[in-house]
Automatic annotation (TrEMBL):
Protein name (database record): phosphoenolpyruvate--protein phosphotransferase
Family (UniProt): Belongs to the PEP-utilizing enzyme family.
Residues of the full protein shown: 424 to 747 of 747
UniProt subcellular location: Cytoplasm
Gene that encodes it: ptsP
Coiled-coil regions, chain positions: none
Annotated source species: Lutimaribacter marinistellae
Top-level division of the source organism's lineage: Bacteria
Length: 324
C-alpha cells in the first residue's frame, strides 16, 4: 500500500486552494521509527511513551529511558518528535505500579493526574528526556490536561528538571517546547492566558470525542453512535481553532480521525493545519488533500450546519462524488 503513494511521498500536502497541511505520524515503539522515512511523515506528532513502559515487567531505570529516548531522537534524524509523558490509567495499567480499582477508570486517576499526584515517574521521565536531547531541540507534551493549573504545575516540573540539569552542568536542550493535549472539553474553555502560555496544543480526538458525546470509546454499544463529522463536534473543533488563532498557539490533531481521509479533510477545512496519524494513513490522507479545495468544502460544511443536518457526512460525500 505504501508503494501506491510513493510518487507523492516527498510532496508537501498542499490543497487546491493553497493551504499547506503538515502531516506527521504517531509512534510509540522503536519499531515504528523506520516508518518516518517510508511514509513521508514530517516528524512524530505523538510519541506515546507509555508503550515502552507497558511492554516491560518492571519499572525502567532512568538510564534505560535516556538510552531509549536517545535512540528515538537519533532515528528521527533531526525531524521533530513530540514526546508525550506517561499516559497511564484508564485502559492502560502498568502491572508493576499500584493501581486502585476505580468505578469509572476513563474518568479516573490517569495520565497527568497521576503524574502530578505521584511525581516520581514524571520527574524521572523529564530528566531522561532532557538528557537524551543532549543539546538538541526537545518537545514535551502532557496528556489529559483538564485545567490551566494542571498545565502550570506540570510545566513547573519541567522547569525544575531544567534547573537540576543546569546545576549538574549537563547540556540543555537547544530549544524547549512544552505543550498540552486537549482531551477534555473543559480545556477548550480555559482562560485565554492558558492559550498564551502553552507552547502548543494537540487535540487528542479519541478522548475528546468520548467526553464530548459522553460515549465510551471502548464500548462497542456506543462507540460508533456519534459521527466525528457531527456538526456539534466540528463546531467545537472550530471554536478551539479560533481560540488558538487569537494567541497564535500552534494546534494539531492527533486522534485516529486524523488518519481517516474524509475526516482529515474536514478537520483541515475547519482550520486544522497539522494532523498526526498512523504512518500508513499519511499516503491516503495526502492523496485526498492534494485534490481538495478547503474553501469549497468549508462552504459545504457550513451549509449543512445551516440546514440543521446532524452530520455533514452525506453532504461531503455527495460533494466528493460530484468531483469524481
Ligand atoms: C487521543 O485521545 O486522541 C490520543 C491521541 O491519545 P490516546 O489515544 O493515546 O488516548
Ligand atoms: Mg488520549
Amino acid at each position: 500500500a505504501q508503494e501506491r503513494y510513493a510518487s507523492i511521498r516527498e510532496k508537501p500536502a498542499v490543497t487546491v486552494d493553497g493551504h499547506t497541511i503538515s502531516l506527521v505520524m504517531n509512534a510509540g515503539l522503536m519499531a515504528d521509527l523506520p516508518s518516518l522515512e517510508h511514509s513521508g511523515a514530517e516528524g512524530v506528532g505523538l510519541f506515546r511513551t507509555e508503550l515502552q513502559f507497558l511492554i516491560r515487567s518492571q519499572m525502567p531505570k532512568r538510564s534505560e529511558l535516556v538510552a531509549q529516548y536517545t535512540r528515538v531522537m537519533d532515528a528521527a534524524k533531526g525531524k521533530p518528535v513530540v514526546f508525550r509523558t506517561l499516559d497511564i490509567g484508564s485502559d492502560k495499567v502498568l502491572p508493576y505500579m499500584k493501581h486502585l480499582a476505580e468505578p469509572n477508570p476513563a474518568l479516573g486517576w490517569r495520565a497527568i493526574r497521576v503524574g502530578l499526584d505521584k511525581p516520581g515517574v514524571l520527574r524521572m521521565q523529564l530528566q531522561a528526556l532532557i538528557r537524551a536531547s543532549n543539546g538538541r531541540p526537545l518537545t514535551i507534551m502532557f496528556p489529559f490536561v483538564a485545567q490551566f493549573e494542571e498545565y502550570r504545575a506540570a510545566r513547573a516540573e519541567v522547569d525544575k528538571a531544567i534547573a537540576r540539569e543546569t546545576r549538574l552542568g549537563h547540556p540543555l536542550p537547544e530549544t524547549l517546547k512544552v505543550g498540552a493535549m486537549l482531551e477534555t472539553p473543559s480545556l477548550a474553555f480555559a482562560p485565554q492566558k492558558f492559550f498564551e502560555e502553552v507552547d502548543f496544543i494537540s487535540i487528542g480526538g479519541n478522548d475528546l470525542k468520548q467526553f464530548f458525546f459522553a460515549a465510551d470509546r471502548e464500548n462497542e454499544l456506543v462507540r460508533r453512535r456519534y459521527d466525528t463529522l457531527n456538526v456539534s463536534f466540528l463546531s467545537f473543533i472550530e471554536r478551539i481553532v479560533e481560540r488558538c488563532a487569537i494567541s497564535d498557539t500552534p494546534l494539531s490533531f492527533c486522534g485516529e480521525d486524523a488518519g481517516r481521509p474524509v475526516e482529515a479533510m474536514c478537520l483541515a477545512a475547519m482550520g486544522m493545519r497539522t494532523l498526526s496519524m498512523r504512518p500508513a494513513s499519511i499516503g491516503p490522507v495526502k492523496s485526498l488533500l492534494l485534490r481538495a479545495d478547503l474553501g469549497e468544502l468549508r462552504k459545504i460544511i457550513l451549509n449543512a450546519r445551516h440546514r440543521g443536518a446532524q452530520s455533514v457526512r452525506p453532504s461531503v460525500m455527495e460533494w466528493l462524488r460530484q468531483q469524481a
